[in-house]
Design goal:
By secondary structure, the chain is mainly alpha-helical. About 55% of the residues lie in helices and about 10% in strands. The protein has 6 helices and 2 strands, in the order ααββαααα. The chain has helices at about 5-15, 15-20, 50-55, 60-65, 65-70, 75-94, and strands at about 30-35, 45-50. The chain has a two-stranded antiparallel ribbon. Bound molecules: zinc ion (2 copies).
Length: about 90
């Protein structure tokens, strides 16, 4: 397994960051969303989003970035920071 695959596995294990950290809905199974422009695309710039918040009508790709950010008062960068914080906590706990 490559380092990128291992990292994305860890991201996926966290559950949707929007459900958990922004909406307080607890753990929900998720997919991995690549943030930023295609030019910046990296498996290390990824956040966990559940299918609805990823591709659904109320999700990032469904709403589009501007409406998504406005609706949830967040941004991909903020969600990435929360995700990295959660990974750091998980490492401490392990
Ligand atoms: Zn979600
Ligand atoms: Zn995506």
């Amino acid at each position: 397994m490559t380092a990128a695959q291992k990292h994305m596995g860890l991201i996926a294990s966290l559950g949707c960051v929007l459900c958990r950290r922004v909406l307080d809905l607890g753990y929900t199974p998720c997919e991995v969303h690549h943030i930023g422009d295609t030019a910046d695309r990296s498996d290390f710039l990824t956040i966990p989003l559940c299918p609805e918040h990823h591709r659904g009508a109320t999700g990032f790709h469904g709403l589009g970035e501007r409406a998504f950010n406005r609706t949830y008062r967040t941004s991909e960068t903020k969600l990435l920071a929360m995700t990295l914080e959660d990974l750091a906590k998980q490492r401490r706990a392990a």
